[in-house]
Amino acid sequence: MFGRSKPIIFNPYGRRRSRWRPPLGLVLLLAGIAIGAAGVVVVQERYLPPRLSATASQTLSRALEQADADRLRLKGELGEATKRLEAVLADKQALTTELAASGATTQGLRDDLAAMVASLPPDPRGGSVEVRAARFTAQGGQLAYAVVLTRQREAGKPTAGVMQLVVAGRSARGVDTTVTLAPVSLSLGGQAIVRGSLPLPAGFTPLRATIQVLDRIGGKSLGMRVMLVQ
Length: 230
Prior knowledge:
single chain, about 230 residues, alpha+beta, Immunoglobulin-like, 2 domains, about 40% helix, about 30% strand, rod-shaped
């Protein structure tokens, strides 16, 4: 009934049961996360540009939208400018073609004129400048003239000179008289047709005109011919 009991050992310095400790791996993981977060904060604060505030972010967004709108506008303007440039180039090409055709036509007219002048009878007086033909018409107090002149030497630069018209006729009183009209400046190449009109004295009736081609006013005579006034 009364069995042998086990002795109870009294140890006043014994240790209590230890509390629970987290695993070392978990502690290291959390410490790494904390250190990484702290490192990110330090890098952002010290080395990266400062973070924008909400107002600055809105301002930047509006600026980007405005820049995109400007880019689209400039793109449209560039397209319009390109179209206008293409139209101008097309017009230039058309004008160049027309100019070439006009040049060919002008050259043809010059050739026709040269052939026509060559077919005219020679100036009976000769001279370094020949008066091949002339037409004079008096109307309204003006003497209209068209004179065909040719040079013996077609090569070289044009020759400068003057054409002086001396007109014989009757004055308003019926008296035979001679009138010297104002000189006409010339620049004569191979051939030229000089056209224009000069005023006549009041009541003067022209009958014939003497054409004098001079190297200058009152200078050396290069050619001369007398023609009737129609």
